Amino acid sequence: MEKDIHNFLNSNLLNKYLVGDTSVVETAEVEFFISNYPEVEAAYMQLQDNLEIMASVDAVDAPSHVLDNVLNSLETSNEPKVIHMTQKRRSPWFSIAASAAAILFAASSYMLYEKNQQLNDENNVVVEEIFDLRNDIENNNSKLDELSMELTKLNNPDAKKYVIRGNDRAKDLKTVAYINPVDKTSMVDVITLPQLPEEQYYQMWADIQGKMVNLGILDEADRKLRPIPYMEDASALSITIETKGMKEKNNNTEVAEVSLKDEK
User: Fold this and answer.
1) Do 168 and 253 reside in the same domain of the chain?
2) Closest Cα to residue 260, out of 177, 200, 203, 183?
3) Predicted confidence band of residue 257 (pLDDT cuts 50, 70, 90)
4) Distance (Å, rounded) from C-alpha 155 to C-alpha 139?
5) For a surface tag, which of 11, 55, 87, 100 has the fewest beta carbons within 10 Å of its beta carbon?
6) In total, how many domains does the chain have?
7) What pTM did the predictor assign?
8) Is residue 63 part of a domain?
9) CB-based burial of residue 145 (10 Å sphere; 0-12 exposed, 13-18 middle, 19+ buried)?
10) 62 vs 213: CA distance, rounded Å
11) What sign does the CA torsion over 29, 31, 34, 40 have?
12) Is residue 191 part of a domain?
């Protein structure tokens, strides 16, 4: 540290600071040394004393008429005179460069922030798309599993296929039933169902010893292979047209029937 103080005292910065000839950086450095090191402060005070002595030695008394002229001038002038004692100092080039660098840094930071936000938004979109894609894949896999199970049941050699066709009252009606007496499962596949009025619908039945057992409603909008109750002693399957609100089967509305006796 002593070496730093010695180098500073030999650098002539104190003299420049005393006459106001230092830059901003140099001024900060001089004031730091004066505030923190007594040796530098003492040297600075000594320079100030020397400067005052030299100024008093070189001073020349002004002629008496000069003072009179100044006083007369002040009395005749109505406008106040302001004497600027401080010297304007030009901003050093590095101050301008520092300002430009600060502006450039702020602009770059803002651009980086905006880019980062954009990337975050894009990442969120990608994550959501991946999540949706995974859900679609899971749903598709589930549907494929169901279809595979259905095909396995249909391809089972023990499963029997029954095509149920419509009569003259519903010529375009076609439904296929698959019955497996070994696994005791039944499935139905709606192929075509003629359109009915809004108050009517198709009902499927199983004939068990002359008693008609309800197997569910058939809807063309639900055209896929679906299970129906298995009836072990069923002798026939039939489809009727029913009217909404009626609780009992109307025997006069049968539009399709298939016998199961020959296939047992």
Assistant:
1) yes
2) 177
3) very high
4) 24
5) 87
6) 3
7) 0.44
8) no
9) exposed
10) 137
11) positive
12) yes
Mark whether 164 and 255 lie in a shared domain: yes
Q: What is the pLDDT of residues 10-61, one digit of tens each?
A: 888 888 888 888 888 889 888 998 899 888 898 888 888 877 776 665 555 5
Domain range for 102: 96-155
Q: Is the pLDDT of residue 122 over 70?
A: yes
- Interatomic CA distance for residues 205 and 184, integer angstroms: 17
Q: What is the DSSP string of the chain?
A: -HHHHHHHHTTTHHHHHHTT---HHHHHHHHHHHHH-HHHHHHHHHHHHHHHHHHHHH--PPPHHHHHHHHHHHHH--SPP----SPP-PPPHHHHHHHHHHHHHHHHHHHHHHHHHHHHHHHHHHHHHHHHHHHHHHHHHHHHHHHHHHHHHHH-TT-EEEEEEB-TTSTT-EEEEEEETTTTEEEEEEEE-----TTEEEEEEEEETTEEEEEEEE-GGG-S-EEE---TT--EEEEEEEETT--S--GGGEEEEEE-TTT-
Q: Of 155, 177, 203, at which residue does a domain stop?
A: 155
pLDDT at residue 224 tops 50: yes
| Residues 164 and 248 reside in one and the same domain | yes
Span 150-208, pLDDT tens digits: 667 666 777 889 999 999 888 899 999 999 888 888 889 998 999 999 899 999 999 99
User: What's the start-to-end Cα distance of the chain, in Å?
Assistant: 112
As a residue count, the chain comes to 264
